[in-house]
């Protein structure tokens, strides 16, 4: 496969960037010509950020699975699409060729049809990282069902909320999922999530761990039986295939829930045409993928990174994508390096938190591992500190692999700011330059563009984007007004990212982190309000306030200030009960690292919690708390300071 839109030099980048901004319709029309459309568009782009209304490739017809699978069959049918590495290294690897992927996706699409799933229906997928997860996702896409993948670390309550919000009638899950030394009982968690649920009609269960499961007659069915039946149904002359449903470019492809500054996660909606073009384009350009190379993105498909850079981006480019079931430290901290060695991985894409965690094990886990196949290293999910950047560059890349620091979000569909591997310069801990089509701008609190450099010659402000790129979210499921107020209402005619950034004189961007009440814990996005709501569910809790604090491995840790009803302050048990409550309500990933019991919270006279002060205390900066005179009870601050944990 060839990628005529692959940028090869810095000059070409500059030229492409300029063209993409001056004439976006021409630019993206040309890029989109390299994909397979049943019918081309009537108009490349129509938009306004007011409503917002964003339409790319309007009138075009396609099915993304024909781009990710069918069009590769003739020339690459026997090439590996997915190489699956099991949690347990002793277990057999599974190599899924493009033709095998086609067969399985068609079969599963037929399973969905057999069970009454129709175009536009929402299918919730709660599975471990097994190839069947890819078949489930792509099977939905093949018949136009909207998939909503939920990360395996979320609790029954979180799943229930998402099922309700998406009004989902179908679930695909596993009996259990292996992660390191543990097996997570996914089906049993689903059973809990379904207590009181009235919409879900069918639960399809794939067997992975042989964990005993309860199967409810009429509702719960086995993946294996369904697949066998579907196979016989669609087989003709030894070929297993079924036609893909024709989709409009702007039909929804999937929903993915993500946390914001308010209590309830939002269902970010991406559509078929623009998302396909954006993930394909950014994959080929940022990582400079060459045909035949092996790409290993270590993310979970429960997050956007897995959607875009394990599945859709690589597969539309006909790449080989490694899918890893386990965790970086099982059976030991050399696991990533074993995988790189075993499959001769060329591109490794991981998160700063993983790099920092592996750094802490020293050089031993690297001994005897051949990493010479590596050509490109990538990071994503949170700001990367210089120490981790250099460790990655030196010990993994041996100074021979460009490091791409890719900044983006669930809402952006794919990478927005990053260097292009070996093509545009890297700068440690800077995401550097915008992708073609992306027009960032830094603004102050009132939305005025920042033009005056600070004492270091840098511009500093809130990061916004001026115009749509093909992968931008279209709405938040079931609540378009929420999409508008969250992203398009802070500043007129701008998409607001929620991040702060710096810009240097060469036009490079450095993302400094969230400026809203969203935490980034080990690359996972968690809303402070969400954690507070969960803590407040505990019987003895009166009120709580949650802030982030710098954490060596996780990037940010969660610090909770909690007022309890009775005098349970000294009680370790009260802390553990709160942790258990949070794990139940959200999931283990949201458990606070520190809990401090307090008698009061610093509030203004109007009753607003002054988080700025709590953040400083949590960061250990107790000296310089700024103005506290507007507080209702300034004395409380000293008390909190003294009892800091
Ligand atoms: C938030 C989005 C992008 C997929 C994974 C996370 C932070 C992401 C970087 C980076 C600094 C980064 C931002 C962003 N972030 N990448 N390279 N440098 N910060 O997706 O869960 O939607 O989180 O992650 O704060 O807003 P997400």
UniProtKB/TrEMBL annotation:
<dbReference type="Pfam" id="PF13193">
    <property type="entry name" value="AMP-binding_C"/>
</dbReference>
<protein>
    <recommendedName>
        <fullName>Acetate--CoA ligase</fullName>
        <ecNumber>6.2.1.1</ecNumber>
    </recommendedName>
</protein>
<dbReference type="GO" id="GO:0016208">
    <property type="term" value="F:AMP binding"/>
</dbReference>
<feature type="domain" description="AMP-binding enzyme C-terminal">
    <location>
        <begin position="530"/>
        <end position="608"/>
    </location>
</feature>
<keyword id="KW-0436">Ligase</keyword>
<dbReference type="GO" id="GO:0005524">
    <property type="term" value="F:ATP binding"/>
</dbReference>
<dbReference type="InterPro" id="IPR011904">
    <property type="entry name" value="Ac_CoA_lig"/>
</dbReference>
<dbReference type="InterPro" id="IPR045851">
    <property type="entry name" value="AMP-bd_C_sf"/>
</dbReference>
<dbReference type="InterPro" id="IPR032387">
    <property type="entry name" value="ACAS_N"/>
</dbReference>
<dbReference type="InterPro" id="IPR000873">
    <property type="entry name" value="AMP-dep_synth/lig_dom"/>
</dbReference>
<comment type="similarity">
    <text>Belongs to the ATP-dependent AMP-binding enzyme family.</text>
</comment>
<dbReference type="GO" id="GO:0019427">
    <property type="term" value="P:acetyl-CoA biosynthetic process from acetate"/>
</dbReference>
<dbReference type="InterPro" id="IPR020845">
    <property type="entry name" value="AMP-binding_CS"/>
</dbReference>
<keyword id="KW-0007">Acetylation</keyword>
<dbReference type="InterPro" id="IPR025110">
    <property type="entry name" value="AMP-bd_C"/>
</dbReference>
<dbReference type="Pfam" id="PF00501">
    <property type="entry name" value="AMP-binding"/>
</dbReference>
<dbReference type="Pfam" id="PF16177">
    <property type="entry name" value="ACAS_N"/>
</dbReference>
<keyword id="KW-0067">ATP-binding</keyword>
<feature type="domain" description="Acetyl-coenzyme A synthetase N-terminal">
    <location>
        <begin position="13"/>
        <end position="68"/>
    </location>
</feature>
<feature type="domain" description="AMP-dependent synthetase/ligase">
    <location>
        <begin position="71"/>
        <end position="468"/>
    </location>
</feature>
<keyword id="KW-0547">Nucleotide-binding</keyword>
<dbReference type="GO" id="GO:0003987">
    <property type="term" value="F:acetate-CoA ligase activity"/>
</dbReference>
<dbReference type="InterPro" id="IPR042099">
    <property type="entry name" value="ANL_N_sf"/>
</dbReference>
